[in-house]
Amino acid sequence: MSTSDLTHHAPRSTNKLRSLFLSEYLVLALTVLLFVALVPFTPGLASSANLLNIFGYLLPLFIVAIGMTLVMITGGIDLSVTSIIALTSVVGAKLMGEQGSATVLGVGAMLVLGAGLGAVNGAVVTLLRLPAFIVTLASMMFLSGFAVWFTQSKNIYGLPASFLALGQRLPIALAVTGALAVTAHLLLRRTVYGRWLYATGQNATAAHISGVPVRSMTFAAYVASGLCAALAAVMLTGRLETGSPVLGREILLDIIGATVVGGTSLFGGKGKIAWTFFGVLFLTVLDNALNLLNLSQFSITIAKGAVILFAAVLDATRQRFNRLNA
Known about the structure:
Blueprint: H1 3-22, H2 26-38, H3 48-73, H4 81-98, H5 103-127, H6 132-151, H7 161-168, H8 170-190, H9 192-202, H10 204-209, H11 214-240, H12 252-262, H13 273-292, H14 297-324
Helix pairs in contact: 2-13, 3-8, 3-11, 3-12, 3-13, 4-5, 4-6, 4-11, 5-11, 7-11, 8-9, 9-11, 12-13, 12-14
């Protein structure tokens, strides 16, 4: 190989690595690499049964993460989503199980309750101008305790078969999740609402001066987050065949982590639904593989925390690199 060949080959390789590093598909590429690397060492990881299990866990997690993405784009955060999942689960189960209500009424009540709780969070954040972290943390504690009190720490069984199908039939769950994801994507990328939402997160003061209804956008994001949490509760409750006052308690780290890993900024103004899906897929595959390796829950939590921290550092590095090359 001549000197000129080496000269041309090195920059080409460097450019490819730089393009991958800056690509919005980086997390997806890392997910594929992670899966391929772990298959030889993780029995059953690539089996059809396990892949179905991955998707069964991924879909409701992705639904909640969609709502979280909208909130984080505004520069906020919603720590109450798992408590909304738990409360809407037991309220819906109570209506459909003990009260004998129809599936449509039960699901409708869950969705309305979720959106209403999100509206309360949004109203407190926007009208009282309190930090979203404190507001949703207090909401999480209150709703979690209320769900336990409401059921006296008991699960609720005897749900209608038509309701259970919403969580147990993968095509139904996939269709609902896909429709929500496409709607949210188009809303963000093709509508005035989406542009206003990004503007709110990038600089709320400048957006307000430009005529953007900042408070309304922030309020709407929290309503959407509550609605998405309730929809996830429908799937999780149907899948587990029970309304539980602690449903979803363990997935808050996964929801926030997947959104951040995907590339949505904690400081607002940046995020895409596709990025969130990549983040959810990455954390789901990682969690599934570590469980199949029979690692302790502490080890899995440590691994997830390290991944989330790495993603935050990577995102900060990429933003700094973009600014230097702008």
